[in-house]
Amino acid sequence: MNNVQQKPSLKGRLYCSVFGHNFSVSKKVTYHIKEYKCCHCKKEMTINSKGYLTDLTPKYKEINSVLERIHQNKLTRYSNSQMIQSPVLKMTS
Ligand SMILES: [Zn+2]
Fold it and tell me: Which domain of life is it from (predicted)?
């Protein structure tokens, strides 16, 4: 286990205040909702239900984890239905 905490460094924050944050996707919640993290200062953002970028607060983390679970359930159900349909598709060839 690597227990080293990635603390926001002063250098990182200084960089961000000059050049702006450099966000990269840290987590895909659904097709439309993603979580972003700045690689310099570790600031986290997310897309809210209205489609705006907002701070990733504990409340939004909770919402996202629920959305992620619903999304995963949908994916599982979709792949199951695809498996049922596939023999029908094979008959056409
Ligand atoms: Zn930043």
Answer: Bacteria
